[in-house]
Amino acid sequence: MNIWAHKPLAKNVEFDSNMMWVELIDGRKLGIPLAYFPRLLNATPEQCQLYEMSGGGSGLHWDQIDEDINVENLLMGIGDRTHSYSHSERLAA
Question: End-to-end alpha-carbon separation of the chain, Å?
C-alpha cells in the first residue's frame, strides 16, 4: 500500500536565515532546518535561490552547490545522506 494518496510535489522553495520552506502543490508548507543540509546552510542566499525542480516537483536540485533533495524524503524527515561519519564521530554523538 502506498502511504501517499498523492505524490508530494514542490511548488515553491523559500529560505530564511536558518530554514528552508517548501510549499507543496496541495497547499502544505514544510519547514526544514538548514542544518539538515550543510551545503544549503553554507551556501550564499543567491546560491540557495538557484534551484531547479525535477520530476514535476518531486526533486529539488542546486547545481552550483551539488545538492539534490527528494521531496518525499523531506516528509519523512530524512536530511542530507552524503556525509559519512567516522567511527570516532559516531562515538562522540
Answer: 36
Helices (H), 1-93: 38-41, 45-49, 71-75, 87-92
Q: How far apart are CA 88 and CA 90, in angstroms?
A: 5
Task: State the DSSP string of 57-80.
Answer: TTEEEETTTTEEEEHHHHHTT---
CA distance 69 to 4: 18
> For 32-65, what is each residue's pLDDT tens digit?
999 999 999 999 999 999 999 999 999 999 999 9
Four-residue CA torsion sign, 66, 43, 53, 69 = positive
Whether the Cβ atoms of residue 69 and residue 40 lie closer than 8 Å to each other: no
Q: What is the pTM of this model?
A: 0.80
Q: Which domains does the chain have, with CATH numbers?
A: 10-79 (3.30.2020.40)
